[in-house]
UniProtKB/TrEMBL annotation:
Coiled-coil portions: 88-115
Protein's name according to its UniProt entry: Uncharacterized protein
Domain of life: Eukaryota
InterPro entries: DUF247_pln
Keywords: Coiled coil
Pfam families on file: DUF247
Length: 408
């Protein structure tokens, strides 16, 4: 006898409803959609810091579905259509070719997003991918210096800078493979062989590379080595290209970082977790232990009083912090108005991405919080190029890093 037959009708419907939800949950878990996610909505805990809210939202142009149709970026949509029209006129290709090509991979592209965007029809989603992707590729092709006629956006350096900043926002991404497919179409109209020599990752790297944060121009050899290194990786979007470029700009070779600590100085001045953290920062691994609330963290002033010296290190890796012979070497970082936005979005990507085991940039931000606690400490701690701007930025960053620690 079915025990459910004896249940009141209302309770029976309730049980059936719960079983239906369990079935949906099993089906969802079996698909494992989270394994493909790489474009996320920034978590509320990171977003809740008032000063950083707009650092996650585009101010000039929307890329992808999260902010499409937002009022503050609508003016740029007409320039997307101009860019698409320029491509079609230049290649002599039909619009349907682009729409059909992206339609074939719509499901794959949707799978990249943590949010399902059920409100976007298939046609609207494909239109958005084509429009945004073509604009990005036309920007890469036209800027700087050539092919700028017909679209005033590509002639305005201020607008270009604003667009580039919006393009590294975590919520403002489209899959990199979409750009590659569109790029392949463009090349089939001219030289089909060219695609083998030019990919979206390489084009993005011309704009988004370590020079943006270090302020140090890369030599041709350094850039080529970086490009070859990134070709071995599967970058998923522009922000990922930028982050990977930061990590692939390898620090100078030296002796094992673990053995660079002088036992006498470390035992007296640095708590165990901080020694391990410094090592893992250098070794490009995530610390497996987060400092507990209330745990003593030695500050810059305390380390100075204990005999530790601070020195600026010359390297393209701003996160490459070293300790040797009583000297803590910290690379300089070039501070601009955009620096906080860049660091926060890279940190948010590291925080969200399930496949990512190397939260190097987030570790850097948290480590700097451990060293610096007040404005007074910065009076003698001169490792940055633009002191006044950095002072204001670091205080905001530290507030955000606390939210990151809580989430961890």
């Amino acid at each position: 006898m079915d025990p459910h037959n004896s249940l009141p009708q209302e309770q029976l419907e309730w049980v059936i409803s719960i079983r239906g939800k369990l079935k949906e949950a099993r089906q969802y878990a079996a698909r494992k959609p989270w394994e493909k996610w790489c474009i996320y909505r920034v978590p509320c805990r990171l977003r809740e810091v008032q000063e950083s809210r707009k650092t996650y939202e585009p101010q000039t142009i929307s890329i992808g579905p999260f902010h499409t149709g937002s009022e503050q970026v609508l003016d740029m949509d007409r320039h997307k259509w101009i860019a698409l029209n320029q491509i079609l006129e230049r290649t002599g290709q039909d619009l349907n070719l682009y729409l059909d090509t992206i339609k074939e991979v719509e499901e794959q592209a949707r799978a990249y997003y943590q949010q399902q965007f059920v409100h976007l029809s298939s046609n609207k989603f494909v239109e958005m991918m084509v429009l945004d992707g073509c604009f990005i590729l036309e920007l890469f092709r036209c800027y700087p210096g050539s092919g700028t006629k017909g679209n005033p956006v590509f002639c305005n350096q201020r607008i270009i800078d604003d667009i580039l900043l919006d393009m590294v926002l975590l919520e403002n991404q489209i899959p990199l493979f979409i750009l590659d497919r569109l790029l392949r179409l463009m090349h089939t109209a001219g030289n089909p062989e060219a695609f083998q020599k030019e990919q979206a990752m390489t084009l993005a790297l011309n704009f988004f590379n370590p020079e943006w944060l270090t302020g140090k121009p890369m030599s041709i050899q350094e850039f080529n080595e970086l490009k070859l290194s990134l070709e071995q990786e599967e970058c998923v979007h522009v922000l990922d290209v930028f982050r990977q470029s930061l990590l692939r700009a390898r620090p100078q070779q030296g002796t094992n970082f673990r053995h660079q600590f002088q036992r006498r100085v470390c035992d007296k001045l640095l708590p165990g977790w901080l020694k391990r953290w410094l090592y893992r920062l250098h070794a490009n691994r995530v610390p497996n232990r987060i400092p507990r609330r209330g745990q003593v963290i030695h500050r810059v002033t305390e380390l100075r009083e204990g005999g530790v010296k601070f020195r600026k290190q010359n390297t393209n890796c701003f996160w490459d912090i070293r300790f040797k012979n009583g000297v803590l070497e910290i690379p300089s970082i070039w501070i601009q108005d955009s620096t906080m936005t860049i660091l926060l979005n890279v940190t948010a990507f590291e925080h969200c991405h399930m496949k990512m085991s190397d939260a190097v940039i987030a570790s850097y931000v948290v480590f700097m919080e451990c060293l610096i606690k007040s404005q007074k400490m910065w009076a003698t701690f001169t490792i940055v190029e633009s002191f006044n701007i950095f002072l204001d930025m670091i205080l905001k960053l530290l507030t955000c890093s606390k939210a990151y620690l809580k989430k961890c």
